[in-house]
Amino acid sequence: MKAVKIYNNIFLPFPPASGNHRLMIQSRGGKPRFFQNQAYRKYREDILLSTPRGSSFEPLPDDRKWMKDILLLISIQAPDRRIRDCDGILKVVLDVLKELWEVDDSRFLPRCQEYAVNTENPHVFIYGEQTLFEGRPVSPNKGN
Known about the structure:
Elements: E1 3-13, E2 23-28, E3 31-36, H1 38-50, E4 70-78, H2 86-101, E5 108-117, E6 123-133
Parallel strand pairs: 4-5
Antiparallel strand pairs: 1-6, 2-3, 4-6
C-alpha cells in the first residue's frame, strides 16, 4: 500500500476560558438551560470570521470503521504562570478546529507537545497530519 500524508498548520490566539467554563447554566421554570459563555462565543466567532474555512483533510467516509484519524501535535504558549488544565484548553481549541476545518472531531488524536509561558504572544499552535493509504485497509484478523 502506498501512504500519502496530508498536513495542516494553524496558529490560534490563547483561549479566554477553559473548556470547563465555556457553558453557563441558567434555570428557567425548574429546567436547567446551557448557554455558551460570552468570552468563549466571541473567541470562536473571531477565529471563524478571520480564518479561511476548510482543510485539505479527507472527508469522513460513509463506512465509519475505515475512518482516517487526524493526529494533532499541539504547542500551548500561555500568557502567565497560572496552573491550567491542558484538557480544558484543548476542549475549546478542538471545538473551534472542528468548525474551522469542517471535519468530525471524533477523528482528532490530540497530543500536547509543549506547554510554556509566552507573555508577549500567547497562542496555540496546531500541526495536523492525516495519513491516507491507497486501497482499503485489510483487517488484521482476515489476513491479506
